[in-house]
Amino acid sequence: MVQFQEHIITELLEDTNGGLVVTSSGLGLHKLISSLFLLHHHSQGCLLILSATPSQKASILRNYENVTQSQISDEVQNSPAEITSDLPANQRLSLYSSGGILFITSRILIVDLLTRRLPTTAVAGLIVLNAHLLSDTSTEAFIVRILRSTNRDLYVRAFSDRPHSMVSGFAKAERTLKCLFLRKLHLWPRFQVYVSQDLERNPPEVVDIRVPMSTYMLGIQKAVIEVMDACLKEMRKTNKVDVEDLTVENGLFKSFDEIVRRQLDPIWHTLGKRTKQLVSDLKTLRKLLDYLVRYDAVNYLKFLDSLRASESFRSVWIFAESSYKIFEYAKKRVYHFGRSDSGKLGQIKTASTKKRKLNDNKKDEDQSTNTESRVVLEEVLEEPPKWKVLLDVLVEIQEERDKRALSGEEKDHLDEGDDNGIVLVACKDEHSCMQLEDCITNGPQKVMREEWEKYLLSKVQLQALPKRNAKKAKELKGFGVLDGVVATAGKKAEVSSISKQEHDALLAAASEISKRINKDTNAEAGDQKHVDDGGFGKGKGKGKKKKSSAGEKTNNDVASTDKAMEGGFSDEVFHRKHDQGLDAESSRETKKLPPVVFYALESDQKILDILKPSTIIAYHPDIAFVREVEIYKAENPLRNVKVYFLFYEDSTEVQKFEASVRRENGAFESLIRQKSLMMIPVDQDGRCLGLDSSNEPQSVISQNLITRKAGGRREAEKEIQVIVDMREFMSSLPNVLHQKGMRIIPVTLEVGDYILSPLICVERKSIQDLFGSFASGRLYHQVEMMSRYYRIPVLLIEFSQDKSFSFQSASEIGDDVTPNSIISKLSLLVLHFPRLRIIWSRSLHATAEIFASLKANQDEPDEVKAIRVGVPSEEGVIENDVRAENYNTSAVELLRRLPGVTDSNYRVLMDGCKSLAELAMLPMERLAELMGGQKAAKMLRDFLDAKYPTLL
Hints:
It comes from Nicotiana attenuata (Coyote tobacco). Belongs to the XPF family. The chain is an alpha/beta fold. Among the domains are: 3-200, P-loop containing nucleotide triphosphate hydrolases (Rossmann fold); 202-213 and 384-405 and 418-463 and 591-650, P-loop containing nucleotide triphosphate hydrolases (Rossmann fold), CATH 3.40.50.300; 215-339; 721-805 and 819-868, Rossmann fold (3-Layer(aba) Sandwich), CATH 3.40.50; 889-945, 5' to 3' exonuclease, C-terminal subdomain (DNA polymerase, domain 1, Orthogonal Bundle), CATH 1.10.150. It is 50% helix and 12% strand. It is built from 40 helices and 23 strands. The strands form 5 sheets. The chain has a 7-stranded parallel beta sheet with strand order 3-4-2-5-6-1-7, with helices on both faces. Strands 19-18-20-21-22-23 form a 6-stranded mixed beta sheet. It has a 5-stranded parallel beta sheet with strand order 8-17-16-11-15, with helices on both faces. Helix 19 (444-464) packs across helix 21 (500-534) and helix 21 (500-534) packs antiparallel against helix 23 (557-564). It is globular.
């Protein structure tokens, strides 16, 4: 461990109650927690770890195993275990009583606490990760409140490495402390004195390489930023959001979407389609900037093609003045297309110029067929500039090592740090890792060639798909004005769509590639058969296998390509291939490269301590990974570590990295100010009182009511019980009900979510769940089951506190019944189930108030009966099935199918007679009275009295 990490643990242990630790990202949080494991002894009780992600859990366990390998064998019994839903209750109880370290989900723990499977005195402490995700209604706060109420010696240690998330919302840090019943907030930013001293004592050698972007990449970046700025201006015009947060710099981060949504959530249902689409467009534009520096030119063009296909009819950003440049420059990075006269390549300027030129050429063809003209498709296949720089850096690293080995320095170098020679390349995602590995193995030209062939073959497969709604596709519809320019469908089509001849040229190139691959596959198959017959060795290497698989994949594409080309152009297609660069590739192969390991930052695995690399290349720089490298060097001061940073010069990649540092520093400065001003209420023993409403003083009215009774004595309050389905503990409502003083009984229910009394059953639906339940038909079945088993079935529609208390804006509510309208669906549901009651709740706390009022004059629910409702016995008979008492469902279905019986009179008939036999004996006058008319009664009587036909 680094010395400042020991300071953090020492400071945390000073308060036996625990504390909340907020650190900068990448400062080795998993090592802090594994060190706390070493301080735990099983005699104290069990230590529970909550809210750990799979990657965090794996990192903590791996670090703990590395530390305990050097410890004595007595420590092995303390190895952490994991409690999952697969473990039965008795095994969970034995693990709790063992006093070990347990990873557990909050849902399992709260159920075991409420069912008293876990005695609270058996818990020594809690470690809560990702504390920035907590709130006063979260399940973790529910757990801490129950444990604190009966176990005063319990300690809670919470951790977070996302300082910017701890300052989102009003007094987030203070509310987090209160919901965990904590008083101490420990802040450890990168600029803290102990941290900066430890990390800067032996810093790694850093080489900052600024790679210039290509001309087209700069053009795309400029165009995307212009479009993003235009969308932000449109967003500001809505007067619905805070203008200060809407900047291009904030738009580079993923949290920007959260900022906008958090401001718009209260009124999200009342917004128009245009504003909602602007929010989605900003997310798309952020991806375009991110993917520009992450992916190669062909994959970037493929992504743009998918956007053009999926978003062209509804997007706002695609109508911006600069949007066509994005598509145009992305295409020019991959290929150039034009018409050459007398062998000269036609240059493409803009989409409108290109289209007009092609039309003019068509007119020339019609007038004279002797003009020599042919279509030229020239491959460009621009390689990402970082690829060449990465290869040069690897060659440079190997040359330096060779020089050291010759001069005798390598031996001294090994003695100092046990250098294993590994070069670690850190990329953003797995795709980049695989592509760079392929680039080092086979060369950049071959990688780009493979991506280009995949792109062309995907065009063939798309062309072979059956066409649907061809006539409707011509009617292009768009909406909105962007940057003061009215966008029309015709302009959009001119800008974003490629010409038919260009499309046909791509298909012709794809046909050529498909035929070549098919030919190579057949040739290799014949060679392989010859080899097999001759009894020679198996296979011919990885390259052959890869080509063979590609050939098998595209074996059936030739026919579809030829079919697609039947209606093509009459001109000769000239396919000018990209220069293969054989000299450069052969020279690269002669140069020796060091052993390279690729690491995906998205995997969030801490591998520096495992691989122990001597050289690290940050291909996609990330602030958290930079801190991890600093920690790694501080823990290994004798090891020579060299770090290369590859940045695109004048790119949003640099801006994003620098802005992330500024944002983190600003978050810590805000937390420092909050810490100096926050007020934490404590009891006489100095312990935090938290947010529990039971600690609030009684109102004056309730106190006066008590004094009017004899001696002012308080009556023994009746315990209010609510039976809750196990699945409902994914929500926060059980927590809020417990805050209101209700006893929560968790069981597995077949019918309903909450049982308030023997008569009242509640099915809770959030807004999102309500829409999904209507779409799947699940809600109809749930209401039907509640209506069968309970006298008062209730559908609770629960809104969020920070969102609009409405389904849709008033302008969207129509008078007609439509199948897509949620109001229409609810109306039909109520008509079909007249006993169903609907409760509209603004928030979780409002729901708790409603439940309390509903239970005011009701008996408490029976847990045993609630569990048995709807559950068949071994013989398949449902015990205590109230359907036999209330309904004979088969008879009801038969009654509703009789002539003259309608939805409006069948319930009156059921109330007027007890059985179908009694119905058949009713006189005509009584039938007319029940059915509401002579006509309906006569239809039913004629049907019942009709004789059965006989065969003579």
